[in-house]
Write a structure and sequence with these properties.
Elements (H helix, E strand, L loop, with lengths): L2 E6 L6 H14 L3 E6 L6 E2 L6 H12 L5 E3 L2 H5 L5 H11 L9 E5 L12 H7 L1 E5 L11 E2 H11 L14 E2 L9 H9 L10 H10 L10
Parallel strand pairs: 1-2, 1-5, 2-4, 5-6, 6-8
Antiparallel strand pairs: 3-7
Helix pairs in contact: 2-8
Length: 221
């Protein structure tokens, strides 16, 4: 089995996440993508972070539409600060009898510049096949205060390239569709009473509206 890992807060999971996972499977022949919701991201300060239970449930719903996708709750069960290095070690042990090669770690480009500051970044780059992906830019008015995003934006203006990062020397860069969808935008649209139905899987839309999450209006009976 060829396994790729896509981590994130998934607050909420949306079609952009699924499109990225599909591209990883299609272009790189991975047979399984594990969606790993983070409990407490080390590089982000949570704002409007939904409960672990709700975020995991939405990931499970989204993955139910495609048998190549699975929800992995190890970071939520571990609690504390969610370090990707610990997660990869756990998954290597969990799937040791099924892995055909290194686990792939999928990174969105907002994380490229700050990757060298990650916990055990060098060891992580050796343990995994790093897959570098496009993602839409989020504004600084987002629900998170994410220092690496700011640094990346600054470096990008100085013609910084992911090729300048030594830890990416063996990384794979994929040309995934850059869908202009973000969890930040979805939360904002929900709070403002705007349409978001076709930005998330149908089951996730129903889950959010039925529970009034993010300030969503409950459906009329």
């Amino acid at each position: 089995m060829k396994i790729a890992v896509l981590g994130g807060s998934f607050n909420p999971i949306h079609l952009g996440h699924l499109a990225l996972a599909d591209e990883v499977c299609q272009s790189l022949s991975y047979t399984k993508v594990l969606f790993v919701p983070t409990y407490n991201p080390p590089h982000k300060q949570a704002f409007e972070m939904l409960s672990a239970e709700n975020r995991l449930n939405m990931v499970k719903i989204a993955c139910s539409y495609d048998n190549r996708f699975d929800a992995e709750d190890c970071e939520l069960r571990r609690k504390g600060t969610s370090y990707t290095y610990d997660t990869i070690l756990y998954l290597q042990e969990k799937y040791k009898n099924q892995l055909e090669e290194k686990i792939a770690l999928v990174l969105g480009e907002d994380l490229f510049f700050g990757f060298h500051n990650w916990y055990h970044a060098k060891e992580l780059s050796e343990l995994c096949t790093l897959v570098l992906a496009h993602r839409p830019q989020e504004t600084h008015e987002s629900g998170f205060s994410n220092i690496p995003i700011g640094n990346y934006a600054l470096k990008a203006s100085e013609n910084w390239s992911f090729l300048d990062e030594p830890l990416f020397k063996d990384a794979i860069h994929i040309q995934n569709p850059r869908l202009q969808i973000s969890s930040t935008e979805i939360r904002a649209r929900i709070a403002q009473g705007k349409s978001f139905k076709y930005l998330v899987p149908n089951g996730v839309f129903e889950y959010i509206t039925e529970r009034g999450l993010y300030g969503a209006s409950t459906p009329r009976k």
